[in-house]
Amino acid sequence: MKIVFIGSGNVATHLAKALFATGHMIMQVFSRSGENATLLANEVGAGAVDGYHLINTEADLYLFCVKDDALQEVILQMPQTTGIWAHTAGSIPMSFFSSRKEEYGVIYPLQTFSKDRALVFTDIPLFIEGSTPATIQFLENMARSISREVHILPGEKRRYLHLAAVFACNFVNHMYHLSSEILLKEDIPFSLLRPLIEETAAKVMEMNPGEAQTGPAVRNDEEVMHNHLMLIADQRIKEVYTLISRSIQSP
Amino acid sequence: MKIVFIGSGNVATHLAKALFATGHMIMQVFSRSGENATLLANEVGAGAVDGYHLINTEADLYLFCVKDDALQEVILQMPQTTGIWAHTAGSIPMSFFSSRKEEYGVIYPLQTFSKDRALVFTDIPLFIEGSTPATIQFLENMARSISREVHILPGEKRRYLHLAAVFACNFVNHMYHLSSEILLKEDIPFSLLRPLIEETAAKVMEMNPGEAQTGPAVRNDEEVMHNHLMLIADQRIKEVYTLISRSIQSP
């Protein structure tokens, strides 16, 4: 399959490498700045382009991996092409493409991507949506070539999945961050928390998170919570502590 | 070493089993209700007792593993004994013992304990504090018999570690819980999030959480955040979404 990547960020990088490794042909990597595009293009045997007029118009698939708030503008600027257009965004409906294309869809990888971290792509759940049965089939086949976890999911559901992922990933990471800030001020290494962090994540692989809840809030231990608040100097961290404790305690 | 456990909850269970497995003698397990005590006592070859007057007064170590808000009362009720008294609570100063004992201290295991989950105890960091150099030495030796991660840490520092653990474990688990509530309403299985949850935890084993942050808040993607808020029916979850997003964005 001949693929053009629109965008060269974290998602594009991981997806392009996985597709390249499975034998797909990455024809081009386009990015408006050009810089990252060259880096990624070199890794997957593709050409790097930085102008819309330079985009090859005869690929089978155009994968739009750009920031959510840039997607509309990028779609408007795209030249007419053959093939299918698909984006990779959790919260954007596939209908963003409808004024420009008939065969379009979504491949949403439910994972957090950082450039420097290698990932086993075959374990990443991919969620497919398409404008026609043939498009769905096409995107599903492509998805199955790189992952064992492929699901057809309409956009109405996908946006809830994306919302849930914000809690389970982005907000979780922010909790790690606040805890690292607390330790930094006391010169205690964050690495001491690693067994705890691993076990907390491992637990919810087997129990549901409601049952797994521990700590002063769920025990209604007001004294410990009061003492904790006294230790927090930062008003923002105090607010987070209070609200989440209350949320844990709410029925 | 001859050990008496005061309390028979999750911490007592895991600690007693680890100590028993290393060859220590668990003489008794005391609990006010008696019920759990019998269960645990049977597993570690100990006697179960439910009255303070039945506690053997000639052990080397009395380990107080009771709820934080019960500790003071339990200490008052304890008979005079030989040996060392130590508690396992993150946020309680060791001085709670000072009116009753001269040799006392703390062994704080930094982990989340559920009865039904087996844990590799040797990986759990244990934090030691003691009222005298000999007490510290004694508790350190005992701790090293069950864990490779033993640290001497004064109570002033320990309470910050405990506070940080609330963020990195209890609050993290609540984020998992809120995400599972969002998915439940949409009939989407929580298990789909597992690779994401694992990777989010794995990332901060290698990068610091500040660098690892992804998602709409750190990208300042106001439109996605606005759309997410529109999807959340529950006022409490809305508040959490708003506050944490703002906290991620704050400098």
Can you walk through the features of this model?
- Chain A is of the alpha/beta class.
- Chain A folds into two domains: 2-153, NAD(P)-binding Rossmann-like Domain (Rossmann fold); 159-249, ProC-like, C-terminal domain (N-(1-d-carboxylethyl)-l-norvaline Dehydrogenase, domain 2, Orthogonal Bundle).
- The first copy, chain A, has nine helices and eight strands.
- An eight-stranded mixed β-sheet of chain A has the order 3-2-1-4-5-6-7-8, with helices on one face.
- The longest helix of chain A has 31 residues, at 155-185.
- The mean pLDDT of chain A is 95.
- Radius of gyration computed on alpha carbons of chain A: 22 Å
> Helix proportion of residues of chain A, in percent?
40-55%
**The CATH superfamily title of the largest domain in chain A:** NAD(P)-binding Rossmann-like Domain
At CATH level 3, the topology of the largest domain in chain A is Rossmann fold
The average pLDDT of chain A is: 95
Number of helices of chain A: 9
Structural class designation of chain A: alpha/beta
What's the CATH first level of the largest domain in chain A? Alpha Beta
Overall body shape of chain A: elongated
- N-C termini distance of chain A: 52 Å
Low-pLDDT stretches of chain A are none
Biggest β-sheet strands, sense, barrel of chain A: 8 strands, mixed
